[in-house]
Amino acid sequence: MSDPILSIEQLTIDLPAGADRPHAVEEVSFDLNKGEVLCVVGESGSGKSMTANALMGLLPDGVTVGNGRAVFDGTDVLTLSEVQKQALRGARIGMIFQEPMTALNPLMRIGDQISEVFAAHNLYSKSERRARALALVKEVGLPDPEKIIRAYPFQLSGGQRQRAMIAMALALEPEILIADEPTTALDVTTQAQILRLILALRDKHGMAVMFITHDFGVVAEIADRVIVMRHGRIVEAGVAKRVLEAPQHEYTRALLDAIPTGTVPDLATVNTAPALEIQHLNKIYRTGGGPFRAAREVRAVNDVSLTIAKGEVLGLVGESGSGKSTLGRAVVRLVTPDSGKVLIGGVDLAALDERELRKQRHRVQMVFQDPYASLNPRHRIVRSLSDGPIAKGVPKRQAHKRALELLEIVGLGADAATRFPHEFSGGQRQRIGIARALAMDPELIIADEAVSALDVSIQAQVLELLADLRRKMGLSILFITHDLRVAAQVCDRIAVMQHGRLVEVGPVREVFHAPKEAYTRELLAAVPGAGWAVDKEDAIA
Amino acid sequence: MSFWKRFATNRGAVIGLIILLAVVTIAILAPVIYPGGPWKMVQRPFLVPFTNEALPLGTDTLGRNVAAGLVHGARVSLLVGLVSTVMALLIGVPLGALAGFYGGYVDEGAMRFTEFFQTIPNFALAIVLVAILQPTLGSITLAIAIVSWPPVARLVRAEVMSLKRREFVEAAHLAGLSNIRILVSEVLPNAVSPIIVMASLMVATAILLESSLSFLGLGDPNIMSWGYMIGAARTVIRSAWWLSFFPGLAILLTVLALNLIGEGLNDAFNPHLKKGRT
């Protein structure tokens, strides 16, 4: 053990009265050593971010440190005055956040934002600040540094913004870098780059990194030591290898088991009758433009042809902006494609007019991403489930009866029917969303990132439910996701999209083990903890 | 926390509600309190308030009871405020909802029409309308409604535009519901809170507008209202202060109460906005 640079002792953070539990964090103790990457892992609400915010003195109103010490360089940072904390923040403890777009000031050039860190600590002259900002931008690997420091945040991509944030955090060479889910909002390939950057900077500057994440893949990738938190308590701590390979606590085991592994299911017998046929589908988005200026064109879906057999689950993967969501929405006609056919049960949905379309809508249904936005907050569950069938012509009584049955099927119980959406958790709402899609007896279900907003253990349950329903009801599903591990678990075939084009389609086993295209290989290599997952799979096999 | 509890944490709002309830009660009971009506001459003119127990607020230039005027005026003020607000909502909500929901040419058309009204100063338009239509209670209410609906349309349009992109609205489209049905049963119920808040403030504005019109002599000559009382007393403001003071106080209290309630409703509907404020 090297010398701890920060040691937290018996930290307890109190929540305001009336919260769901009295303490956000309870009696948490750990050390952060010089030059190590400590991963704090937990599901949402486990108190992992609160711990970091307490160190930075950034707790929300009403939340206070109840007890405990956080000793950094001989002083307890929790007892410092606001002015002393300001001197500490940035200079000796740096922090990067999850969403780089909201963490950067949208009206300030990148260079000025970095210079401002120096200005806040009264360091250097104006020209020196500029020179240092430029050096930092170079160090974090941003292309064309001269141009970048004069760019505004909106002109950068997500990964570039996160690099700029890291440059700001590193400006004063802090001894500790706190990273709060810095890669969660990024694509896998970008995430892999940022993780590599953080590791390289750690090696170069010898700083300690406290890395907060919910993703064990990321942990496997970068952690030296791991702390697993649940309900504000540490349930397990130890060296990364030990925690990942031989977890002691059952919660850690449950979390690790819940992670979709690269284990590829055997091919289901594929029916040849198609549930969905997409033929040469195109969708172009045009923005801006006017009488004197050409509009900016984005080919969101570029000549895509695809079939899904009856009873098949096809995974559609790709990075953000690859057009996978647009394709899904074009299939259900939430987006009207520019050309091409979407044949479902012999009907071309893309060609119908509004009235005809309304009658055919029931053939394909969608499960949405955000469990909090996908249910009308003012309607009882039974109404959300039966409005569609009633509009289709099912008698009211029968529609209600079916709604109750479906709630049983998705594991909620019929008493859920009379309640409102806000009474349910995210995972339960997603079950309701699935029940709503099933209520229309669709020939095809589109699941658009249906489990992406859920914690891993909940995610596993919802995936289990989908697999179960599929076995029982022979559902055909187009499963859109950015998470290759999830796709591997539930799908029969995988389709990879990039820049609106279909890059590769094939059975899961082929795509994962013998990818034909370079882009697919790149995607697979970027999955965090890829090597570790393979090890685990071998261990099982 | 229940809606009422959240509302009650704002002390100003509760005070506002108490004042408003008092005004409403007085307005309802007006014929019982002063069965003779506000126009009857009961004493010598210019009776100073607090000198005669039967006439606590004194008498006006013609010897009419000021207290009776106030009580009956409350009926008119509240009625005009309420009815004109309902009318403004009936114009503004459907127009804004259609504009926001359908977008495109519908939106362009509706918003240009709205802007046409917004470019003319409210009060000037109200005066012109009342002057053309003859000053009656109905025409005054209509004029107030016509000048006060544009902000409602704008608000509803903005709400609907943000709500229609929510996933539950898309789910309703997928369920095959008709556009009108989606607008009425999925979108609008979720836009109700800001509309209610705005309506409570509009009642206050309408009362002020009615008073201003009456003050200028454009009120219904057959109806006793607070604004009319102040307008009639303006020539004697130096010798008989109470004639304009008491109706003025009544307007102030009622409008203040409505504003406090609006504020309280806003806090109660949007609890997350209140965090950090005590």
Automatic annotation (TrEMBL), chain A:
It is found in: Cell inner membrane. One of its GO terms (cellular component) is plasma membrane. GO terms for biological process: peptide transport; transmembrane transport. Keywords: ATP-binding, Cell membrane, Membrane, Nucleotide-binding, Transport. It comes from the Bacteria. The keyword 4Fe-4S does not apply. Pfam families: ABC_tran, oligo_HPY. Its main location: membrane. Residues 6-256, 276-524 form the ABC transporter domain. SUPFAM superfamilies: P-loop containing nucleoside triphosphate hydrolases. One of its GO terms (molecular function) is ATP binding. The keyword Repeat does not apply. It is a peripheral membrane protein. Belongs to the ABC transporter superfamily. NCBIfam families: PRK10419.1 (NF007739), PRK11308.1 (NF008453). This is Peptide/nickel transport system ATP-binding protein. It comes from Puniceibacterium sediminis. The lineage of its organism: Bacteria, Pseudomonadati, Pseudomonadota, Alphaproteobacteria, Rhodobacterales.
From TrEMBL, chain B:
InterPro entries: BP-dependent_transpt_permease, MetI-like, MetI-like_sf, OppC_N. The chain crosses the membrane at residues 12-34, 78-102, 123-147, 195-219, 240-261. GO terms for biological process: peptide transport; protein transport; transmembrane transport. Keywords: Cell membrane, Membrane, Peptide transport, Protein transport, Transmembrane, Transmembrane helix, Transport. The keyword rRNA processing does not apply. Residues 74-262 form the ABC transmembrane type-1 domain. It is found in: Cell membrane. PROSITE patterns: ABC_TM1 (PS50928). PANTHER family: D,D-DIPEPTIDE TRANSPORT SYSTEM PERMEASE PROTEIN DDPC-RELATED, OLIGOPEPTIDE TRANSPORT SYSTEM PERMEASE PROTEIN APPC. This is Peptide/nickel transport system permease protein. It comes from Puniceibacterium sediminis.
